[in-house]
């Protein structure tokens, strides 16, 4: 979708939709929001809706960073300690590797 | 237990070759004349399945791996990577040479070939500690037994599941008084991170040694240059850590593809009685007093399914089978007061699987009799290597102190039985615990009088306990040269005569212990003909005419031209051994019944009979063919032989960390194979994303002939294509 062709109100509404959608445990919507609207929010010359778009993009970036941190931490802990957790580790796993703890 | 069989790889590779050809012929159609196109088509047809893979790899035909076994606390055995372990071959010359493998060799990882005198604990432990440089070990099994004793088992077999625990008597626990297996190195109970295979000393192994000599050996101190001869061994085991973990992973339901990773060890115990006992009504039987005659069936060695078990297993149960046969007439004509119960336990090597299960069933009213019915126990241990014709009677010193436990009577029965025979029975003469025996599990439940007959006074005389050398040669079973298999079957060896004497003593002692009259003893004699045939069948060749006459027709295909394998195996698979003992016991203690085949196989005397199956069991055996025809005349054998499940109670109770019962399981695996090839140096390794392995050069190994000219062209085409 080419943002050039959209009027500014629609750009704002799209940005808002992606921002609000990300709260439904969908951090990729926030990633898309940040990447897609970055130019609109920070590079383009000022227009009336840009301030709102800027806010949405900043908040999406913040949420994204939070998700990335949480997921990275959990994945690191799980990969490292799954074998030691024994039963709990097995019940949390979707596929268990064969032949290694 | 094997789950997937990997089919021969030549077929898919052939297909791949053909596709390449189609491409080239398409290309060449543009440039070539019809004649050339015909030539390429011809070579397409000519190459057929002579694939590139066959020019690179020499597959090992006879691969005997060591597999992973798990129990409540440990895992033992060997493990390889999922994609096999590749190592540069090195034939180990001596123990000092291990240093070269572990430290100074320039091309790690190495795959060490050991001749059997070097397969010792010290070398294996050193290799285990340096396992980053060791890709695997291949042991060349010799054709003759070594001179000095080798036992990979522990020094104190089954020390935690016998009766001698801290509670019973701490001074007798953990082999404090007598170390039963002093030659034990404990190798079978170690965990290795690389595969260990056993190779037979035949042409394949000669190819391997030749490959090493040609390519890998350092000449005049210079390091060998690439390409080097390498071997790849696959024996990836799915289970890990211990039994509780692998049984839990078996049970997990919500994964996409539920995978079984291990199976409990177990099989069936075989038992029979001299008087029919109602097998459907379980639990205590009023007025029934039973003398149990026990023997153990199974054995093991370091490698998977190699378990000749001659002295450790066969000597005992063949003696008991012969004794059961000797008692057949006496117990029919002049039945003694008590019933004699012949029991053959499976899985005793692995913490008494069979006997613990039978005792558990007896305690839970799940068996035809219960422990209150048991009067005494006579067990036959290892009796094949009698020095000075002496038999030793072992008993438990702790329970003997109790006056109600009348071991004296049992010993006197044995001494009476041995009178007039060429066997002398003695007690060890000092206070000594019982050797590892199934009777210990009965004692754990309650004090019962019992004696274990062995051929050793204290430590085992068996120098190859639970090893692959405990075979017919070790029992001195030798035949005169130039005999056909049929003639060997009927030749009575000295070992057979010796075991027959033991069987006669056991039979007579059982008769007296069961309350029979001494006047009948003269008529109770074991038959050396039967003993020698059984020894031949179990230790040399199970596919022989004597066995064939005593089995049902559908079991014929299970008999092989090799000795019977005595490894207990996983519980789902009933082993050849259990079937054979069941049918032999039926033939030796049962009688012919004049019943049609249909009725016989449905366990009834005639169409309306519904009661006989509680007391008897019926087997239709195929019998012999009469002299002037080829069709066998089958007949029905009625006997009291039954099978009882030999699966450790720990698996029924789901207590996988049990300290009381055996928790042994065997891992599953996908494929077990090995192959040798020449490998190029790391510098030539082309790092395509789809070829993560070392780049195997398409050079033929030494023994192969050069390919024909047509194939050579093709070969070169493919080489350029693959590179």
TrEMBL record, chain A:
Q: Which domain of life does this protein belong to?
A: Eukaryota
Task: Give the keywords, sorted.
Answer: Membrane, Notch signaling pathway, Transmembrane, Transmembrane helix
Q: Which InterPro entries match?
A: Gamma_Secretase_Asp_P_PEN2
Subcellular location field: Golgi apparatus, Golgi stack membrane
- Kindly list the residue ranges recorded as spanning the membrane: 20-39, 60-81
- How is this protein situated with respect to the membrane? Multi-pass membrane protein
Pfam families, sorted? PEN-2 (PF10251)
* Entry GO CC: gamma-secretase complex; Golgi cisterna membrane
Annotated GO biological process? developmental pigmentation; melanocyte migration; negative regulation of neuron apoptotic process; Notch receptor processing; Notch signaling pathway
Please verify whether the record's keywords include Signal: no
Similarity field: Belongs to the PEN-2 family.
Q: Which PANTHER family match?
A: GAMMA-SECRETASE SUBUNIT PEN-2
What is the recorded name of this protein?
Gamma-secretase subunit PEN-2
TrEMBL record, chain B:
Q: Which GO terms describe its cellular component?
A: plasma membrane
Alphabetical GO biological process terms? Notch receptor processing; Notch signaling pathway; protein processing
Q: Which UniProt keywords apply?
A: Glycoprotein, Membrane, Notch signaling pathway, Signal, Transmembrane, Transmembrane helix
| Domain Nicastrin small lobe residues, every copy | 65-239
Reading the lineage from the top rank, the first entry is: Eukaryota
SUPFAM superfamilies per the UniProt record, alphabetical: Zn-dependent exopeptidases
Pfam families registered for this protein in UniProt:
Ncstrn_small (PF18266), Nicastrin (PF05450)
Query: Which PANTHER family would you find in this protein's record?
Result: NICASTRIN
Protein name (database record):
Nicastrin
